[in-house]
Amino acid sequence: MRVVYEAANVIDAHLVRHALEDAGLPVFLRGEALVGGMGELPLFGVVAVCVPEAALPAAREILQTLPITAPPPAPAPARDDAMPLPLHGKPA
Questions:
Q1: What DSSP character marks residue 90?
Q2: Nearest to residue 15, comparing CAs of 27, 3, 2?
Q3: pLDDT confidence bin for 86, thresholds 50/70/90
Q4: pLDDT digits (tens, 9 = 90+) for 4-58
Q5: Residue 63's Cα: distance from chain center in Å?
Q6: Which CATH number fits domain 2-69: 1.10.150, 3.30.70, 3.30.390, 1.10.3470?
Q7: Considering the entire predicted model, what is its pTM?
Q8: Which residues contact 26 (CB under 8 A, 6 or more apart)?
Q9: DSSP for 31-69?
Q10: Would you list the domain boundaries of the chain?
């Protein structure tokens, strides 16, 4: 098995896993059981999505199409019609 994706968390790993399984690829999550033992400390690189060597090219191709590998969208611009907040209890 080869690591095709290092997940940020278990939910992230399962989203990738389901996308790969929907394409018919066998998937194994490495380190999923370790997450419960890490307590309050943030650990990265604990959960990895693995596929067989033969499925690696197809898995990488699928990962390129997933929105989780894309940068987050830009924040929406501020609205001009938003009501201003009162300043010291008086309308602005």
A1: B
A2: 27
A3: low
A4: 998 888 888 899 999 999 999 999 999 887 766 555 555 566 789 999 999 999 9
A5: 11
A6: 3.30.70
A7: 0.65
A8: 51, 52, 55
A9: TGGGGGGGTTS--SS--EEEE-GGGHHHHHHHHHHSGGG
A10: 2-69
